[in-house]
Design a protein that fits this description.
The complex is a heterodimer of chains A (about 375) and B (about 700). Chain A is built from 14 helices and 2 strands; from the N terminus they run H-H-H-H-E-E-H-H-H-H-H-H-H-H-H-H. Chain A has helices spanning about 5-10, 15-35, 45-65, 70-95, 110-125, 135-155, 160-175, 180-200, 205-215, 225-240, 250-255, 265-300, 305-325, 345-365, and strands spanning about 100, 105. A two-stranded antiparallel ribbon of chain A has the order 1-2. In chain A, helix 4 runs parallel beside helix 6 (about 135-155) and helix 5 (about 110-125) packs antiparallel against helix 6. Chain A has one domain. Chain A is mainly α and about 375 residues long. The radius of gyration of chain A is 21 Å and the shape is globular. Helices cover about 70% and strands about 0% of the residues of chain A. With about 700 residues, chain B is α+β, with helices and mostly antiparallel strands. Chain B folds into 3 domains: about 55-70 and about 185-235, Penicillin-binding protein 2a (Domain 2), CATH 3.90.1310.10; about 80-180, no CATH class; about 280-695, Beta-lactamase (3-Layer(aba) Sandwich), CATH 3.40.710.10. In chain B, the strands form 8 sheets. In chain B, strands 2, 3, 4, 5, 10, 18 and 19 form a 7-stranded mixed sheet that branches. In chain B, strands 12-11-25-24-23 form a 5-stranded antiparallel sheet, sandwiched between helices. In chain B, a hairpin with an 8-residue loop joins strand 14 and strand 15 (about 400-405). The longest helix of chain B has 28 residues, at about 15-40. Residues about 1-5 of chain B have low confidence and may be disordered. The chains are: A mainly alpha (about 375), B alpha+beta (about 700). At the A-B interface, helix 7, helix 10, helix 12 and helix 13 of A face helix 1 and helix 2 of B.
């Protein structure tokens, strides 16, 4: 065992620094998003509190050897499934939220599910490692995924379902799924889509269908709703120019033409306030975060750690890609947040917990500087 | 002592590489897309953002008031109270909101809720014209324009408006909007002069929008002075450019606001009292004869009164007309349709727009001509046998066919000279002096060319210039006109017909009035006017009526002379003594001529009391229009006729001239003359009252 002092020397300060800058920028942008809305006034302060708690969690998690989590994976998986089941049935009884109130803070089971799925799959693939991933292993991993995803899908929460499935696919890819199987998988996806089209996408909720329809065939006269929101986001981004209109200076934001601006469309606030240069900086910071995670994955001392770093890195990549894609109107509206930047304690906490684990992996990697 | 599974192999490098390429490609594409949106299309999106936040508020200008010459209000703006809601300011607590709705519901008599709304009723939502409950209106308004005022109930009484205003503190979000509605205190009495307002017509929308009007809100004149002087009355709307947020809440002015400029007030030359008497006189006369005849002889007519010295129109009645107060908010479709389909054309001011054969009143045009041209001397006597036959020729060597012309008195008037020909309105005399019947008249008569010259000199064939819409020109025929428009040569009989204001001659009642008024005024043809003054909202007189002489026929050479059918290019004036004799002839009409005949006892008193010293001319104009045609009356001897009478007083120095026209009134002397006499007498009575009041 390395000494504790040595371990901290391997702490990835570039990753941590990028994450910290993004989170602080996030608070600033949330503040800009208030725009006189009384309901949002306390959000920057709350986000600051969330960030402080999340940083504490990050360091605690980083300090703990990630391998200790292996013993907790099974109970965590079961607890998460119970949570999801509870939410699913509560949904049936009360007809609302994906939020589960525990004490005074709100935990979003979907966020929990992302962490638990990455850990569970990382552990599973670490134990079934082979150059040629056989069908049996793939199917068993599908069962693990299915146990969580089914309840989220039935809520219905399509975006989280897709995130979880994409994480699974990304992990399958890296552990060496053969091209043959990939082609078969792609075939199945196409088949599912065709069946879906034939049944009129009966499994989608109305609002989800609307979002897809709005994306594919926008109504040019819409004054409200999704199309309006996306149009306003585009206008807001467009007003940014090279350097932006200045912090808190965007008319689109301050006069509230931009909707859901503290979460889904916070990237548009960034673009309006700080312009093309601002967006470029944030995208580069996100790329730094992703690439650092991947580097840690490549240098991890074991497969479990490697897959954890890879999983969280991919999660951040995917969420960033979808969120920015929605903002610049190349993807349909999904409700996925921009990692570290968007308002939301649950999301920030789970991401920081993930970064903590990645740091934990980095600190204990085999080819760290001290070896 | 490591219990954790150790790494026994590393993942394929190329699988990471594929992922890196994916990250690079996607974010690379995003950066390009951002460059496109922010840099390349930035100006476009900035313009859209500007459009989002700026709103132009057009503040309506107050329309000017219309007064009569004595300051009696003929058109004004009155406040109309609407109870409105601004959903954004309603209390947040649903219970409080419901309490407000309940309390308000009792006051304004609209249910709190009328059940669910469907998309249809939301799409068709029109404030003031819907049967929705308060909740539904608030829902629709709150979704679409939460910070704008939306009317819950329009045109509430002042008491309700006051009550709501007193409760503003307890009812946040509820207010009273005061809008202005055009009201006409004199209503039907002056509607043919004043007109009414209506929405900006689609075809003129661009024109009015360019002037700063707002379609679907601002109104423009549709008839009368409201239409013809719309520009003077309307004023200029104010403009405010403000910044608004997404809810429509006004944040601040973006530029210096331009305040609306109120429209100007107009004082008309009309005397509302004289107008009332004229209208009453016309209607009661028509009613009397309809009762007397036991059938509807007539149900339409015109009375107009003017000052011959100034051209001011003092009264202008066109009957039937309409109730313009019914158009104060909207033009009701059924009412408008009813008016449009009425054969009497109540929407038209027949005094200005109606074109009718003037009949014997037109004889005065020839009367000036025959003396001025020396066709006859005043003493020259011509025989009226009651009926003559004229050989109708279309060209010089046309053998022709005989055509009969008759005097209204079939026994004939015997030998008549100039003054008696006017007094007795002797048709045969005027036929002969115009057409030169069988060399009875020296020089072959006045002829069609000169007849038209004298008619035009008296204002026939051209607009009077009155400030009212849709004025007609009338028609003074001559051989050239006939060849161009009817493709036919001028016939001998045409001259005979035109001499007595029949045949092709058409004129508006105001032209008839102004022609006689010109003679009464010693030859000065005045431009008619209905506007006394234009006064700005702050009291400055912008325009004051000054009498405008179009021409003085005794001074300006207007009469073209002719050699056969060819103008000689020589112009001449009318000798003043000719006008004097025509004036004397018209005095004789009243004292001993056609207007002195009293077949009906009730007229005896009216006419024998000659206090006003009036002169005048009767006219009974045969006509054939669609109505007469359908009754089969367009045949010789059976023709229906309009009743005309123009009178002025005192005949030596006229200050009032009045025309009365009764459609299908049969005889001018009996139907129209009494109306004119009553108006003239009323004028002098009113003058006496006014003089007594202002010593």
């Amino acid at each position: 065992m390395k000494s504790s002092r040595n371990v901290w020397q391997n702490f990835d300060f570039v990753l941590f620094g990028a994450v910290l800058i993004l989170s602080i920028l996030g608070i600033a942008l949330v503040r800009s998003s208030i725009a006189g809305n009384i309901e949002l006034v306390d959000h920057p302060q709350r986000q600051t509190t969330f960030l402080l708690i999340s940083l504490a969690v990050l360091f605690v998690v980083a300090a703990v050897d990630y391998r200790y989590w292996i013993t907790l994976i099974q109970p965590m998986y079961i607890v998460t499934m119970v949570f999801l089941l509870f939410v699913f049935t509560a949904e049936a009884r009360f007809g609302s939220a994906r939020w589960l109130e525990v004490g005074t803070i709100l935990i979003q089971p979907a966020e929990l599910a992302k962490i638990v799925l990455i850990l569970t799959l990382a552990n599973f693939f670490a134990n079934h490692e082979s150059k040629s991933l056989d069908l049996n292993t793939i199917l068993r991993s599908a069962l693990i995924v299915g146990g969580l995803v089914i309840w989220i899908f039935l809520q219905p929460n399509l975006s989280t379902t897709i995130v979880l499935l994409v994480i699974w696919a990304a992990l399958l890819w890296i552990v060496g799924m053969k091209i043959r199987f990939i082609l078969i998988a792609v075939g199945i996806v196409i088949l599912v889509l065709l069946i879906g089209a034939a049944t009129g996408f009966a499994f989608l909720a109305d609002y989800q269908k609307d979002r897809i329809t709005n994306f594919l065939f926008p109504d040019p006269d819409a004054r409200y709703g999704e199309t309006y929101n996306v149009d306003q986001a585009l206008i807001t981004i467009g007003t940014g120019g090279w350097f932006g209109q200045g912090y808190n200076q965007s008319t689109q934001v301050q006069l509230r033409f931009l909707k859901v601006r503290h979460t889904d469309f916070i990237f548009s606030v960034l673009a309006a306030d700080f312009g093309f240069v601002g967006t470029l900086v944030v995208i580069l910071l996100l790329v730094v975060v992703i690439l650092r995670c991947m580097r840690i994955s490549q240098n991890a001392s074991d497969t479990f750690g490697s897959l954890i770093a890879y999983g969280f890195g991919f999660l951040i990549f995917f969420q960033s890609m979808v969120n920015i894609g929605v903002n610049i109107n190349v993807l349909p509206v999904t409700g996925l947040t921009l990692p570290f930047v968007s308002y939301g304690g649950s999301s920030l906490l789970s991401l920081m917990l993930g970064i903590g684990m990645v740091e934990s992996v980095a600190m204990r990697s085999s080819n760290s500087k001290n070896e | 002592m490591n219990v954790f599974p150790q790494r026994n192999q590393s993942f394929d490098k190329w699988r990471y590489l594929v992922l890196f390429i994916l990250v690079g490609t996607i974010f690379g594409f995003y950066i390009l897309r951002l460059f496109d949106i922010q840099i390349l299309r930035g100006a476009d999106f900035n313009a859209q953002a500007e459009e989002n936040r700026t709103r132009i508020i057009n503040e309506p200008a107050v329309r000017g008031t219309i007064y009569d010459r004595n300051g009696v209000i003929l058109a004004q703006n009155v406040p109309s109270y609407n109870v409105v809601v601004i959903p954004g300011y309603l209390p947040e607590d649903e219970g409080d909101t419901q309490r407000i709705f309940r309390e308000l519901s009792e006051i304004i008599d609209i249910p709190v809720s009328q059940g669910a709304t469907d998309e249809e009723s939301v799409r068709n939502f029109t404030p003031c014209y819907n049967d929705l409950g308060i909740s539904e209106i608030v829902f629709i308004a709150g979704t679409n324009w939460p910070y704008d005022e939306t009317a819950l109930k329009c045109n509430v009484s002042k008491d309700v408006a006051m009550y709501v205003m007193e409760n503003r503190e307890e009812w946040p979000g509820i207010d009273v909007e005061i809008s202005s509605v055009r009201q006409y205190p004199t209503g039907e009495l002056t509607s043919e002069i004043i007109g009414f307002l209506g929405p900006i017509p689609a075809i003129l929308e661009d024109y009015y929008v360019d002037l700063g009007f707002v379609a679907n809100r601002d109104k423009v004149g549709y008839a009368g002075v409201e239409q013809s002087l719309n520009d003077t009355l309307a004023g200029t709307n104010g403009i405010r450019e403000v910044e608004v947020n997404v809810a429509g809440e006004i944040i601040r002015n973006l530029s210096e606001p331009v305040d609306p400029i109120p429209g100007n007030d107009i004082y008309l030359t009309i005397d509302a009292r004289l107008q009332a008497i004229a209208r009453e006189a016309l209607i009661s006369e028509i009613d009397y004869w309809n009762n007397f005849g036991g059938r509807i002889i007539s149900n339409s007519g015109v009375v107009a009164a003017m000052n011959p010295k100034t051209g001011e129109v003092l009264a202008l009645v066109s009957y039937p007309n309409y109730e313009n107060n019914r158009m104060e908010r909207i033009i009701p479709g059924y009412y408008y349709e009813q008016l449009s389909n009425d054969p009497q054309d109540p929407l038209l001011n027949k005094g200005v727009t109606g074109e009718y054969p003037p009949g014997s009143v037109y004889k005065l045009t020839s009367a000036l001509g025959v003396l001025n041209e020396g066709v006859v001397t005043p003493e020259y006597e011509i025989n009226d046998p009651g009926s003559i036959f004229v050989i109708q020729r279309f060209y010089e060597n046309d053998p022709g066919v005989p055509r009969q012309f008759v005097c209204w008195d079939q026994n004939g008037h015997g030998m008549v000279n100039y003054r008696w020909a006017i007094a007795l309105s002797c048709n045969i005399y005027w036929h002969k002096v115009a057409g030169g019947y069988q060399d009875e008249v020296p020089n072959g008569g006045l002829g069609p060319w000169l007849m038209s010259e004298y008619a035009q000199a008296l204002g026939y064939g051209s607009p009077t210039g009155i400030e009212l819409p849709a004025e007609s020109d009338g028609l003074v025929p001559n051989p050239t006109w006939k060849r161009i428009n009817l493709g036919e040569n001028w016939a001998t009989g045409d001259t005979y017909s035109a001499a007595i204001g029949q045949g092709y001659v058409l004129s508006t009642p105001l032209q008839v009035l102004n022609s006689i008024s010109t003679i009464a005024n010693g030859g000065k043809l005045m431009d008619l006017t209905i506007v006394d003054s234009v006064v700005s909202a702050n009291g400055t007189i912008l325009q004051q009526m000054v009498p405008s002489v179009r021409w003085d026929i005794t001074e300006e050479p207007l009469i073209e002379t002719y050699d056969g059918n060819n103008p000689t290019g020589e112009l001449k004036t009318v000798e003043p003594w000719v006008l004097q004799l025509a004036n004397e002839g018209m005095r004789l009409v009243v004292t001993e001529g056609t207007a002195s005949r009293y077949e009906i006892e009730r007229h005896a008193e009216l006419f024998r009391n000659d206090s006003s010293q009036s002169a005048g001319k009767t006219g009974t104009a045969e006509y054939c229009d669609d109505v007469a045609q359908s009754q089969g009356r367009c045949e010789f001897g059976k023709w229906p006729s309009h009743a005309w009478y123009v009178g002025y007083a005192p005949w030596t120095d006229a200050e009032i001239a009045v025309v009365a026209f009764v459609y299908n009134g049969t005889e001018g002397a009996t139907l129209s003359a009494p109306v004119v006499r009553r108006v003239i007498d009323a004028y002098f009575e009113l003058k006496a009252i006014d003089t007594a009041e202002t010593p």
